Amino acid sequence: MAMTTFNRRYHITTFGCQMNKADSERMAGILEDMGFQWSEDPNQADLVLYNTCTIRDNAEQKVYSYLGRQAKRKHEHPELTLVVAGCVAQQEGESLLRRVPELDLVMGPQHANRLQDLLEQVFAGNQIVATEPIRIVEDITKPRRDSTVTAWVNVIYGCNERCTYCVVPNVRGIEQSRSPEAIRAEMVELGQQGFKEVTLLGQNIDAYGRDLPGTTPEGRHLHTLTDLLYYVHDVPGIERLRFATSHPRYFTERLIRACAELPKVCEHFHIPFQSGDNEVLKQMSRGYTQEKYRRIIDTIRRYMPDASISADAIVGFPGETEAQFENTLKLVDDISFDHLNTAAYSPRPGTPAALWDNQLSEEVKSDRLQRLNHLVAIKAAERSQRYLDRIEEVLVEDQNPKDPTQVMGRTRGNRLTFFPGNIAELKGKLVQVKITEVRAFSLTGEVVVRQPVTI
Q1: Does the predicted TM-score (pTM) go above 0.90?
Q2: Which long-range contacts does 29-36 make (Cβ < 8 Å, 24+ apart)?
């Protein structure tokens, strides 16, 4: 297969989580180092890559729909290179080739850094499946960042948790932490390039460092997320730090205290609780109770009363009763989340819960999801009220795609905010904005002009 048949253009479609988005940026960087150029239209590209998600069945089915179109196109253009990466690739492996024989490369998330080596084998005429577990090595290729203002930085890959509903450990492998030095070096380069905000990423970021060697005199791991925040906090040029996704089992007061002490760490925490019922949490193998979760939130608000809290929740887990679902509603009502990602339980291949015989009907799951979403919108709108007439620091990221007279960015609490402005002048700037209108999940405001002080 000759690489030069087309115009060496590539297209990546990304499904799923922030980790997938970060992986796609890295793979895009590799492709551009190989001489490919980005194509907005997959039908004009000679290499099409789908970076897939298997956390929900509908996301997986969407991938197959997209693949079907490209498989037909490949019959007309045999030179087309068709790649499936990510979690569906890891889950299905060789069976994906049997379902879509037009594929050239199937590669799991752990192989993202090896894309060039794998493609060279494809261009030599081979059909490749790369899903075997490997030790992830540092990638010297520079990602093609989707933003010039904010950036993802992976700090830990994989997950050692065994939640009974979750396919992530099967498709992303065991936990592998990057060294603090490598993380800081990547952030230093981002600061030099003009990036202003970094989000440290991990499927279970609180577990950072427990696979690295060393212990402190007090007996804890030498490297933890808390220590990492202190270590990278002074990177020049980086004005804001965030991290995701946290696990309540490992979220400590020491980490909360560090977030309160370090001025660059934004007052926003994403901590999934999944269910507000202890028996359901036990069946999920989550390793904590709803009481412990509430104590974490109470501690955050004791140190940072105005902090934004977001989370994930699942309804309709196998065997969930109406009373257990109402415990989830009560938790949401009591805590008042700023944002909540909700989903009806979806059985996933290779997970214990998918095999249980107490599955709930789609009608029950849909009803509970609608009721939860209704409450989430009410509570988010209530939380937004505190912003009205306040002055918020907003990092300008881009133009409002629906109104070219406005720019948009996020507050430190992660609220999307729109206000009038020129993107050419404001992009990447930290701007003081007075909030004039609030909605459940976004804000509108106007720039506060600082008057010069006359002495």
Answers
A1: no
A2: 29/141, 29/142, 29/143, 29/144, 30/113, 30/115, 30/116, 30/141, 31/115, 31/144, 32/144, 33/116, 33/141, 33/142, 34/116, 34/119, 35/8, 36/8, 36/9, 36/10
